[in-house]
């Protein structure tokens, strides 16, 4: 007998086109990568911050190899949970790493929602009002819920339109800003200190976070048309599009503002760069594009994480309660996703949200590569040197990022460590209790026969 989730999966299978998948992937990446993280990357890396995006793209490309190989072999909605379960079995490691991924995606929604709020309030000079930023962020997350509740085609169609608008708009802004300012001003006129290479390396953690939206595609693999062929193609195209867009914007911002100006306006750096380069019209144009980009990013992310949580529930990796709600599990997970994302958006600022997301994602990513390398490499035809390269790159970036944060914000490192530990302990407790309950149920008939 099929569950509600199975029924809905078969109903939605093959409902997302290649172009729609690319739109969702770039929607999440560009929403977070450009508008939420450019200022924080520049604050760490200094004048070399465009290089951080290049290194981040290289590390992400290595990381994507595992996901593409696994998704081509076993395309599935909630694909990362599937990868981890096949790599480690249905135990604590697979469940905990899957939950870390889901949490990093929810964190991403909060990050992008607060970025939306900051840009939306910037024309009125209200971006420093914590209460208004929280209210606007929460309003966007609620809007994303209603779009997702309308179904897959609504999400795919909305993402496609918004992605076309924002990619074209961002490219136009970047080219115009570069044309107006050239390449020799702003941050690029400042001296480069080789002693800052450790900070550059630490900034790559944020750059990787800017590209992690490709996992949205992996988590929706079972709903993409011809998934064995199109999931990998969709991931590659999405990363390539974002590399071009990110570099254009990084150069435009770096040519318009000094490093200190970028750091000061790190939550709205593109809007700050637009005003000196393109005047008031350019400023408002950039704000409009930011609102479009962050809106589509939150919608696409809510879509992906609710699907992943549904998969985790159906695989019995996490507990589930209906709390009196009707309908299938997927609709419940949609509600839980927006509630958690909304809570984080209200309670945390952009910097800490981004840092937590980077820690959670990098730990999960390393567990994926190790699991594939250890047990699935031959079955999916993966090359060991690529998997080892991805593992080493992730570990180097994670170490550098942790040291950098210990110097500037040790509390966020403590939050990350506590959060990761709490996930593993909670999963161990839940799975142990579930195993005991199943053992008791299997023994009961034998006792009755006695």
From TrEMBL:
Signal peptide: none
InterPro entries, alphabetized: AA/rel_permease1 (IPR002293), AminoAcid_Transporter (IPR050598)
Name of the molecule in the record: APC family permease
Classification of source organism: Bacteria, Pseudomonadati, Pseudomonadota, Alphaproteobacteria, Sphingomonadales
PANTHER family named among the record's database cross-references: AMINO ACID TRANSPORTER, SOBREMESA, ISOFORM B
Top-level taxon in the UniProt lineage: Bacteria
Organism listed in the record: Aurantiacibacter xanthus
Keyword terms of this UniProt record: Membrane, Transmembrane, Transmembrane helix
Statement: the UniProt record of this protein carries the keyword Membrane: yes
Membrane topology, as annotated: Multi-pass membrane protein
Recorded GO MF terms: L-amino acid transmembrane transporter activity
A Pfam family hit: AA_permease_2
GO CC terms, sorted: membrane
Location within or outside the cell: Membrane
Transmembrane segments: 12-36, 48-68, 88-108, 128-147, 159-180, 192-214, 235-257, 283-306, 327-347, 353-373, 385-406, 412-431
